[in-house]
């Protein structure tokens, strides 16, 4: 399985009144990891959208284990956890600088037509992406 790593430095604006990263910001970090994963496969998410294809989130799972604070660095590991040709599920683990597992999660996405939101099959509309996703799943 192919895994990418993305680093983020915690910005002050991401923290809440308790001085820790607000829980909603981890979803943004997942998005950073996912787009970096796609880029590492050689594709451009913005280009896909320009071509009239969107990949909305249909489900999120997230588990918080340890908080992050302003100024700390986070490492987001992202991989393709499951892929059916219609649905892609990405896995995430966010580590702190001490290599402790702080946040884990998964996001589920489907491809849809930008105008109609009708579901699309990746193999048909993005055959190169489909092949890369199959390789990413089998890449040990």
Automatic annotation (TrEMBL):
CDD domains: 4HBT. Keywords: Hydrolase. Pfam families: 4HBT_2. It comes from Pseudalkalibacillus berkeleyi. Belongs to the 4-hydroxybenzoyl-CoA thioesterase family. This is Acyl-CoA thioesterase. Signal peptide: none annotated.
